[in-house]
Automatic annotation (TrEMBL):
<keyword id="KW-0547">Nucleotide-binding</keyword>
<dbReference type="GO" id="GO:0005737">
    <property type="term" value="C:cytoplasm"/>
</dbReference>
<dbReference type="InterPro" id="IPR002139">
    <property type="entry name" value="Ribo/fructo_kinase"/>
</dbReference>
<feature type="binding site">
    <location>
        <position position="271"/>
    </location>
    <ligand>
        <name>K(+)</name>
    </ligand>
</feature>
<keyword id="KW-0067">ATP-binding</keyword>
<keyword id="KW-0119">Carbohydrate metabolism</keyword>
<dbReference type="GO" id="GO:0005524">
    <property type="term" value="F:ATP binding"/>
</dbReference>
<keyword id="KW-0460">Magnesium</keyword>
<dbReference type="InterPro" id="IPR011611">
    <property type="entry name" value="PfkB_dom"/>
</dbReference>
<feature type="binding site">
    <location>
        <position position="234"/>
    </location>
    <ligand>
        <name>K(+)</name>
    </ligand>
</feature>
<dbReference type="GO" id="GO:0004747">
    <property type="term" value="F:ribokinase activity"/>
</dbReference>
<feature type="domain" description="Carbohydrate kinase PfkB">
    <location>
        <begin position="6"/>
        <end position="279"/>
    </location>
</feature>
<feature type="active site" description="Proton acceptor">
    <location>
        <position position="238"/>
    </location>
</feature>
<dbReference type="GO" id="GO:0046872">
    <property type="term" value="F:metal ion binding"/>
</dbReference>
<dbReference type="GO" id="GO:0019303">
    <property type="term" value="P:D-ribose catabolic process"/>
</dbReference>
<feature type="binding site">
    <location>
        <position position="268"/>
    </location>
    <ligand>
        <name>K(+)</name>
    </ligand>
</feature>
<feature type="binding site">
    <location>
        <position position="136"/>
    </location>
    <ligand>
        <name>substrate</name>
    </ligand>
</feature>
């Protein structure tokens, strides 16, 4: 099967800082790394490293050639990444000594993905394939409906969070992935408990506390996190989601896919960086968590 990902592609500028800056504070960074990122690119790389076939749908600017080359190097099909006039998306990421982060995004080309490129990519999809998207590009709702009508399984990772964006795609979703804060905000906005949302499967990630899986007609299931010492939480949620979808695409039961994704996320927070350091399947299977 294939995972089609309408997702962002960013150039990440990652600053190491002694603590996360407060309003009005000028803070000296202790280090800087540049790399490939964006929630979409992270998920594509994670799914590809989990041995899935991944087609990335997106856009970069004239300065984005290296980002596309990196995705290709990591095993992602890049034929449906368009070059547009806007600058390639980028993110400034601040990471403190405990691994927590603050991220500032500039959408750029991520908000200029041509509709024709989306339609062209999905024209080769088959019923039962996966379609995944996040809230960092344009055309999510239209693409999700198109994928649903073609018989694809539709997944939405609700970040950066917008209740309106979630509600726009909710009628066609098979799986909704969001963190605990986003889940609370969505419940306030909709007036529904998480387990009552009109989506067959809802995954609520809780960082170091693991995740909760809500599925229609059953009690919520809690999955604990693997205890590790984090050094950088950037991209950990994207790694979890990419591995989760890849596991489901390979035919794993949800609980087994969650177990795989949990291991991937735990290993990811022990590394500095984003897409460039997402662990591959062999490493995850061989790594001895203690």
């Amino acid at each position: 099967m294939t995972i089609y990902n309408l997702g962002s592609i960013n150039a990440d500028n990652v600053y190491a800082v002694p603590h996360l800056p407060a309003p009005g504070e000028t803070l000296a960074a202790t280090g800087l790394r540049n790399g490939l990122g964006g929630k979409g690119a992270n998920m594509s790389v994670a799914a590809a490293r989990a041995a899935a076939r991944v087609v990335h749908i997106g856009a970069v600017g004239p300065d984005g050639r290296r980002a596309v080359e990196r995705l290709l190097e990591y095993g992602v099909d890049t034929r449906h990444i368009a070059q547009v006039a806007e600058v390639t998306g980028h993110a400034n990421i601040y990471v403190d000594a405990a691994g927590e982060n603050v991220i500032i995004l500039c959408a750029g080309a991520n908000h200029a993905v041509p509709h024709a490129e989306i339609a062209k990519a999905l024209s080769s999809a088959n019923a039962g394939d996966f379609f995944v998207t996040q809230n960092e590009t344009n055309a999510q709702a239209e693409a999700a409906r198109m994928a649903h009508d073609l018989g694809l399984r539709v997944v939405y990772a609700a970040a950066p969070f917008s209740a309106g964006a979630v509600q726009a795609v909710m009628p066609v979703l098979d799986l909704l992935v969001l963190n605990a804060v986003e889940a609370e905000q969505l419940c306030v906005e909709t007036g529904s408990d998480t387990g009552d949302l009109p989506v067959r499967d809802v995954m609520v990630t809780r960082g170091g506390e693991g995740c909760i899986w809500y599925t229609a007609g059953a009690a919520p299931q809690v999955f604990p996190a693997i205890p590790v010492t984090p050094v950088d939480t950037t991209g950990a949620g994207d790694t979890f989601t990419g591995y989760l979808i890849a596991g489901l695409d390979r035919g794993m039961p949800m609980a087994q896919a969650i177990g795989l994704a949990t291991r991937a996320g735990a290993l990811m927070v022990m590394r500095h960086g984003t897409a460039d350091v997402i662990p591959d399947l062999k490493v995850i299977e061989e790594f001895a968590f203690r």
